Amino acid sequence: MKLLKDRNEIAARTVAALCVCCCLCPRAATADPPPIPQRMLTDGSTSDSLVTATRENLLEAIIRPLPDSKLSILLNDLSRADSVLRNELQKAPTYKTSRQQSLRWLQRVELATLRSELFPEKSPDGIAAANEAARIAEASLLALPASGSARSEVLRLLAEAHLRRGDLQSAEVVLEDMNASAAKTAGPDGSNQESHDIAMQVRIAIAAGNQTTAKNLLEDYYSQHTSRRLNMDLVRLRYLLRFGSETQVANWLDSISQTHGEDAGDRASTIVSQTRLTDGEGVSSASSANPERDPRLWIADAMYYLRKEESQQAALHFARAAISDQDARRSIQSALKAAAILVQSGNSKASVELLQRISDSHTQSSDAAGALLQAATIAHDHASEFTAEEIRTMLQHVADRWPNTEAALAANRWLIAWNRNEANWLAAAIQTTKIAVRHWRENSSTAPSGTETHASQSVRSLCLLCWSDAWMHEPDAKTVDQLHQSFADAAPASLPARTHTDLTVLLDDPISRASQATEGFFRELAKFRLGQSVSITSQPPHAVTTALIQRLEMDARQQPERRVAIGRCLIDLDRKHSLFASEIEPGGSSAWRATVHRVGWHIWAGERSAAETIVKEAIERNADAANELFRKSAQAYSISPSKADQARAAKWWKRLADNQTRGSHEWYASTLGWLDALKRSGKTKEASASARMILLTMPPQSAEQAAAFENAAK
User: Fold this and answer.
1) Burial 542-555 (b: 16+ CB within 10 A, else e)
2) Fewest beta carbons within 10 Å, which of 123, 325, 395, 548?
3) What's the rounded Cα separation, in Å, for the pair 633 and 681?
4) Chain segment 380-408, per-residue pLDDT in tens
5) Using CA atoms, how far apart are residues 369 and 391, in angstroms rounded to an integer?
6) What are the C-alpha distances in Å from 619 to residues 79, 501, 510, 630?
7) Residue 255, Cβ density class (10 Å: 0-12 exposed, 13-18 middle, ≥19 buried)
8) Is 585 left (phi over 0), alpha (psi -120 to 50) or beta?
């Protein structure tokens, strides 16, 4: 645990006062000594651990105040430690050295003085604690030697106690005695002694309302000393709190933090908050709209109440600071802290409204994007209090106002996922083209083209996935037209442009962009679709494998003459790169879908025996799913211009019809497929006769199907 330097000086002087033979230790006069090891404040007694721990906890509580529940525990520990020290002094045998007894007295005085610093000056608790510290200090003076550093240190602590209880005259008298005592034991360097003397004089002048005296003392000191001491800086802070403006206080508060570190800054902040609270500048004026109030002091107050676990007051002060602060980053940080407290207290509505207000006030700051994204997150986590449209609007504002921020990227991803979850496939795809070029660049995969995985979550792979899915759900010209328009509206950049080209090669006519496709898979795909090659060797990105299957199967139906090449290409890609690997679960529906697709590919490739084997083995595993395999086999043969293949298609259509309930809608549909395949295979008369017989014996109820049978009967 870090300790404040002025407290380390007290420890240093305490040890110095108790050196062997009570000789003066030069460390007591050095500037800002390092922390004193705990063992130097102890004497091997069983009380040492309790006293040391209590002292450390007191120092921490002075720097960062505790809530009342924890403070009461600390005060109980303090009472125990003082009781142990008091008992040891009462039971000390006559042969105990004065050094050991002096140590115990100094420990009692220091603990009592530290206790008084737990509370604001002028507060009832602070005055009561200071009275007790003065009583113990005065008792110790009767027991300590008439001269020496130990006595000087007790006098210093006694002066502090008098000052904190408001007895300025007694403080001045003790200060004079202390100076006289210290003069007899002065070391070669009196700078440490001097700073504490001046600090006490300034504080007495401040308490007396004597601004001129306090100001002159401070100016004289700082004009003669180039190095900054924490105790003097804290005294100057008290001076500014009494006689300066809020801006001066806030500036000096920042300076203390920058010069002396975090612990010193927290101690200074606590002094500011306790003083403002005692003077009525804290809670009572938190709702004030006075523009001259410095928001940095609201932040100090907020941190004080947060440590005291007074959450409502902390949230109020953070919110006030956020609203009044012109410094964007600081304002947003205050708003985020206030929002977090409000959410914990069950007021999510207020937290979201505050974050929205602050982000609107600082639109020029990229930090505002994170604030509004946090508002959307809070609203999503408390969905019962917000509409989906409200959350969407916040996310869209983040994406549109601050497109280059990480918050915008997160908002875009969120909107994309939201649209996909609601099956708004095209909206999700369009959203990917709105992501800033910076994120395309910084989030693109570093792997070679064609090997990036969906797990990489690059913007490019996300774009490929979303547009592929949109096209698969609506594989028509409208989707493709929207693809081209969305990229035309996006900011021009090389990676998005290449992605547009690659998607065109996959989803549209590749002729216009074949030469511009990315090297690797998409360049090979363009050549294959144009009939310039007979295979694709590169692995397709996982984001597009499902769309690739659908694309090539559509090509096979639209260009039956290429069905053999397409079937072989798909079989080869599947063997080398497992096209269904990212979605298959053994025995699951996706595994069955893969089996169905493979049947069609083997039929196109002319591998009829392999297709028959797959169907047979699949039906043995799952007889209930036979119809899907029969339909796929029939459809695969149906695209062929060969009469022999059409006859095979008729066989599979007939098997499908025979496996369904006669007279059902599915039975009529399968029978129509059988009749059509019979005609294409050359058996026109048989097909017509069969159609007429069905119309006579069990005509379909559907007008559409009835018309189809009438046509087949001709």
Assistant:
1) bbbbbbbbbbbbeb
2) 123
3) 16
4) 999 999 999 999 999 999 999 999 999 99
5) 14
6) 84, 42, 39, 10
7) middle
8) beta
d(CA 308, CA 31): 33
Contact of 379 with 387, CB cutoff 8 Å: no
Those residues with Cβ within 8 angstroms of residue 606's Cβ, 6 or more apart along the chain or in another chain = 564, 567
If you search the block for the tokens 């959307």, which residue do you land on?
Answer: 376
List Cα–Cα distances, 252 to 17, 215, 232, 712, in angstroms: 34, 15, 12, 95
**What is the residue whose two structure tokens read 């090389």?**
494
Q: In sequence order, which residues have a C-beta less than 8 Å from that of residue 443 and are 6 or more positions away?
A: 409, 457, 458, 459, 460
Q: Please report where in the chains the tokens 């050991």 appear, as a residue.
A: 100
Burial 468-485 (b: 16+ CB within 10 A, else e): bbbbbeeeeeebbebbee
Residue 586 pLDDT = 44
Q: Is the pLDDT of residue 583 over 80?
A: no
Query: What value does the mean pLDDT take over residues 214-223?
Result: 96
Q: Which residues contact 465 (CB under 8 A, 6 or more apart)?
A: 454, 543, 544
**Are 330 and 299 in contact, with CB atoms under 8 Å apart?**
yes
How large is the average pLDDT for residues 318-346? 97
| Mean pLDDT score, 318-331 | 97
Retrieve residue 59's tokens. 């120092």
CA–CA dist 402, 369 (Å, integer): 6
CB neighbours of residue 453 within 10 Å? 14
Rounded CA Rg of the chain: 42
Q: What are phi and psi of 355, to 5 degrees?
A: -65, -40
Nearest to 333 by CA among 354, 353, 348: 354
Residue 475 pLDDT:
92
pLDDT of residue 513: 77
Q: What is the pLDDT of residues 587-599, one digit of tens each?
A: 446 788 899 999 9
| pLDDT at res. 358 | 98
Helix, strand, coil distribution of the chain in percent, nearest 5: 75, 0, 25
The dihedral formed by the CA atoms of 230, 233, 234 and 237, expressed in degrees to the nearest 10? -160
Please state the three-class secondary structure of 283-326 as a single string: HHHCCCCCCCCCHHHHHHHHHHHHHCCCHHHHHHHHHHHHHHCC
Torsion, Cα 286 120 61 254, to 10 degrees, reads 60
